[in-house]
Design brief:
Helix content: over 70%
Number of strands: 0
Structural class: mainly alpha
Strand content: under 5%
Number of helices: 3
Order of helices and strands: HHH
Radius of gyration: 15 Å
């Protein structure tokens, strides 16, 4: 989670500072992908408060949600997949 936050905030922050006109963000990214990222971070909160251990059940849920998200991107031909 820490590296994800750094990539989103740190790398994008530096990129925005380096780009003279800013970094364009597509509307689908703002309306779908960002809420998914925020929800994924919120799903990690219980893990932080329960001893920093991911149980087998939590792991299955997180992996399942990741598979659903990836399948959605593939099914909709989302530009997020190169």
């Amino acid at each position: 989670v820490g590296s994800n936050l750094f990539n989103i905030l740190g790398v994008m922050g530096v990129a925005c500072l380096a780009a003279p006109t800013g970094v364009p963000v597509s509307p689908p990214m703002l309306h779908f992908d960002m809420p998914v990222m925020i929800a994924a971070a919120a799903l990690c909160l219980p893990i932080f408060f329960t001893g920093w251990r991911i149980t087998r059940g939590e792991g299955v849920v997180l992996l399942g949600l990741y598979c659903v998200y990836t399948a959605y991107l593939v099914a909709t031909n989302d530009a997020a997949i190169p």
